[in-house]
Design a protein that fits this description.
alpha+beta; single chain; four-stranded antiparallel sheet; Alpha-Beta Plaits; 33% helix; globular
Length: 106
């Protein structure tokens, strides 16, 4: 199953500092998931000034339960970076099949 994950950072003065403190661990876990075919794509959401304020991730996992297990250990969750997370089931389009070799595309 593929999921779109939108993680929105807090808006307090320490939000960017929390993101930067957790970023290395977040990227390392993302690389591990990418290498396992579980994370297809990720990007930072930016505000009008180019400051990181959230994340968008496309995951390819076996179930919502597996996605929730990842969220339990995701450094942006455990580090208090993401204050709101929206999850939607999605399907990567056939035009991107070559870019996402691990994806099951119907």
């Amino acid at each position: 199953m593929q999921f779109l994950v939108l993680g929105y950072d807090g808006t307090d003065e320490q939000a960017l500092a929390r993101r930067m403190a957790a970023r290395e661990a977040h990227l390392a876990l993302g690389d591990k998931m990418r290498d396992a075919g579980k994370m297809l794509y990720g990007a930072a959401i930016l505000d009008d000034e180019g400051k990181m304020i959230g994340s968008v991730i496309i995951c390819n996992v076996d179930s919502r339960a597996e996605l929730d297990q990842w969220l339990e250990i995701e450094p942006y969750m455990t580090g208090g970076v993401w204050k709101k997370v929206d999850v939607q089931i999605c399907r990567v389009g056939p035009s991107f099949a070559k870019l996402t070799p691990h994806a099951t595309i119907n």
